[in-house]
Amino acid sequence: MTALRKTRIALDPDAAPFAIRAERASDVVAREALLDACFGENRHLRTCQRLRDGRAPAEGLALSAMRQGRLVGTLRLWHVSAGGVRALMLGPLAVDPSCRELGVGAALMHHALAAAKARGHGAVVLLGDAPYYTRFGFSGLKTGELSLPGPFERDRLLGLELREGALDGAWGMIAPAGASVSPTKARRAKVLRSVPHAA
Q1: DSSP characters for 64-108?
Q2: Helix extents (H) in the chain
Q3: Of 10, 112, 173, 183, which is most buried with the most CB atoms under 10 A?
Q4: CA gap 180, 174 in Å, rounded
């Protein structure tokens, strides 16, 4: 019988894993800087932003990925009415370019979808690249009759049913349906967005 040898592993601090947790108020500045870096400062003009402006993310579904005390990923889900059908809108999903090979985006997706399902939500829609999101179960099969309040590419409007049949009959305009953010909070967020961020 061969004796098992203990293998010593040198822990490299740069290879430290990341952790996913609920977004905190202290994440706002870092989150905004990450979103600007990933999507550009004109990201506020995008069609899906119209569904988020003045709204709070769905409860328990705003997530931050942290690595060595630094925010390296963010994902939020928002309440919408998908042509009269209750659903969540996913986005934006952003990952620090230096951490993209660590699987942060996929981990955020899996965590968010599991949390949404556990909270009883039936469906999630998003505007994104099909080759990336199909691996999580998203497709355009039930979003063909849906529209967004602004320009968008039809093949990028994708949906995922967390409960079978949840998007049946979904047609028409996707509209915001979540809780409104207090005017004070909305003004504070706007000021934070206008403050130049460090590179």
Answers
A1: EEEETTEEEEEEEEEEEEETTEEEEEEEEEEE-GGGGGGTHHHHH
A2: 28-39, 49-52, 104-118, 130-133, 183-194
A3: 112
A4: 17
Q: Record the pTM.
A: 0.83
- The set of residues, in sequence order, having a beta carbon less than 8 Å from that of 168 and lying 6+ positions away, is 85, 142
Q: Which residues contact 173 (CB under 8 A, 6 or more apart)?
A: 83, 146, 147, 148, 149
- Tokens representing 46 are 């995008």
Q: State the pLDDT confidence band at 117, using cuts at 50, 70 and 90.
A: very high
Measure the CA–CA gap between 70 and 11, rounded to whole angstroms: 19
Q: Which is nearest to 123 in space by CA: 107, 97, 146?
A: 146
Of residues 82 and 183, more confidence is placed in 82
Distance, CA of 115 to CA of 194 (rounded, Å): 32
Is there a contact between 78 and 88 (Cβ–Cβ < 8 Å)? yes
Can you say whether the dihedral through the CA atoms of 44, 47, 48, 54 is positive or negative? positive
How many residues would you count in the chain?
Answer: 199
Cis amide prior to 92 (ω within 30 degrees): yes
